[in-house]
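Good morning,

Attaching, inline, the C-alpha cells for the sequence recovery test we're adding to the shared suite. The designed sequence is right after.
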C-alpha cells in the first residue's frame, strides 16, 4: 500500500505568528482526517522551529521547502539538511519549479540535495513538471522523464524507497488552472512506468503527489485516480479549513 500524503507548501507566506496559528488550526482539525492520510506542512525556514513545536507529538509531519547542496561550511544564507534533521524536520521539498526557475536549481544540484537529504534521514518530496510551452509542444513526457532519470535514476533502490515525487505542471501552479484528472493520471502513470524501468516493482510503492491549483473542489476526482497518491498544495494550504477538506478528499 502506497502512503497517502497531503503536503502544504506555504512558500514565502505568513508571518511567524500567523504560521503558528495556521499550524494550530490544522492540528485542531486533525481528528477529521482519515488516519491513513499523512499530513505534512512546509513553512519557511524561519517558521520551522516554532511550527515544529505545534506539530510535535501529532501525526503532522514537518517539512522544509529546500535545503543546501553542500554539507556545511562557508555557504552564507544556506540551510543544511543536517540542521533540518537536528530540529525534527522529516521532509524536504526539492526541485520545486519556482526554485528551478528563479534560483537556477539544476538537476545536477538536485542530485546533491536529494543525496544529502536522504543521508540525514529526510524524505525528499521531489518535484517534476513541464512548462506550458512544453505541454503545448507535446514535450511533457520528455521533460518529466528527463527530470526523473537525471536525478532519481542516480539513486539506489534503498534510497529511492524513501523518496516522494510530486508532479506539478508549471502552468497549473498558482494559476487556478488544474490539470484534468485524465491529464494528471496519464503522466503519473508515465512517471511510475519510468521508475519501473530502473527500480522494477519498487515503482508501485512510491507515492506520487499531484500539485497545481489543487483545492477542495477538485481534490476528490484527482485523488481517485489510480496513480495519484495525494497532493502538494500551495495556495489552498494557507487556510486550515481548505487544507483539511483536501485531506478528507480520498
Ligand atoms: C505548489 O507550488 O506546490 C502548488 C501546488 O501551488 P498551488 O496549489 O498554489 O498551485
Amino acid at each position: 500500500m502506497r502512503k497517502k500524503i497531503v503536503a502544504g507548501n506555504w512558500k514565502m507566506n505568513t508571518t511567524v505568528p500567523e504560521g503558528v496559528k495556521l499550524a494550530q488550526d490544522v492540528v485542531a482539525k486533525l481528528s477529521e482526517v482519515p488516519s491513513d492520510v499523512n499530513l505534512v506542512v512546509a513553512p519557511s525556514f524561519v517558521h520551522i522551529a516554532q511550527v515544529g513545536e505545534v506539530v510535535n507529538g501529532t501525526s503532522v509531519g514537518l517539512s522544509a521547502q529546500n535545503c543546501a547542496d553542500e554539507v556545511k561550511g562557508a555557504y552564507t544564507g544556506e540551510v543544511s539538511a543536517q540542521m533540518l534533521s537536528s530540529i525534527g524536520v522529516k521532509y524536504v521539498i526539492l526541485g520545486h519549479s519556482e526554485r528551478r526557475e528563479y534560483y537556477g536549481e539544476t538537476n545536477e544540484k538536485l542530485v546533491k540535495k536529494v543525496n544529502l537529504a536522504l543521508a540525514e534521514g529526510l524524505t525528499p518530496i521531489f518535484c517534476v513538471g513541464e512548462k506550458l510551452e512544453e505541454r503545448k509542444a507535446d514535450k511533457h513526457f520528455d521533460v518529466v522523464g528527463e527530470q526523473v532519470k537525471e536525478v532519481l535514476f542516480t539513486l539506489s533502490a534503498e534510497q529511492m524507497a524513501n523518496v516522494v515525487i510530486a508532479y506539478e505542471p508549471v502552468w497549473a501552479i498558482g494559476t487556478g488552472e488544474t490539470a484534468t484528472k485524465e491529464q494528471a493520471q496519464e503522466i503519473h502513470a508515465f512517471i511510475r512506468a519510468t521508475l519501473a524501468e530502473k527500480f522494477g516493482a519498487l515503482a508501485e510503492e512510491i507515492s506520487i503527489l499531484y500539485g497545481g491549483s489543487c483545492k477542495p473542489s477538485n481534490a476528490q476526482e484527482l485523488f481517485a485516480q489510480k496513480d495519484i497518491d495525494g497532493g502538494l498544495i500551495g495556495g489552498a494550504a494557507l487556510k486550515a479549513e481548505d487544507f483539511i477538506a483536501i485531506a478528507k478528499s480520498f
